[in-house]
Design goal:
single chain, about 120 residues, alpha+beta, Alpha-Beta Plaits, two-stranded antiparallel ribbon, 3 helices
Length: about 120
């Protein structure tokens, strides 16, 4: 699956807005996506370092319009925790030289709130 097919939309609620300061972002995701696929998709789309992914299946609610009753569709929600203080990765190369990793990560997702 492509990252654009995995991440469907951000979930904007009071609770998800309160968790933004902790580096937790909430997304509506594809029902067949796994935690590993979700983490890779968020890292690729938003260029952040993902620390943890929590997923849950949300059951649809019963709705009524006039006489007719129906049910909203089930969906999957993912709460993604990102690294808010990314540091450059250093490792030892040939000859004991320290080499810095070239990948740079952001400390927040700017596109989350439409900014």
């Amino acid at each position: 699956m492509l990252p654009e097919e995995i991440i469907i939309a951000p979930v904007v609620t009071e609770k998800s807005n309160d968790e933004l300061q902790e580096g937790k972002y909430t997304f509506k995701v594809n029902k067949k996506a796994t935690k590993v696929e979700i983490a890779k998709a968020v890292e690729k789309l938003f260029e952040v370092k993902v620390l943890k992914v929590n997923t849950m299946s949300v059951k649809g609610k019963q709705k009524r319009v006039g006489y007719h009753t129906g049910k909203t569709s089930d969906w999957k929600k993912a709460i993604v925790t990102i690294d808010t203080n990314p540091e450059e990765v250093t490792y030892l190369g040939k000859g004991g030289k320290q080499i810095k990793g070239s990948k740079k990560f952001k400390d927040s997702i700017d596109e989350f709130m439409g900014a």
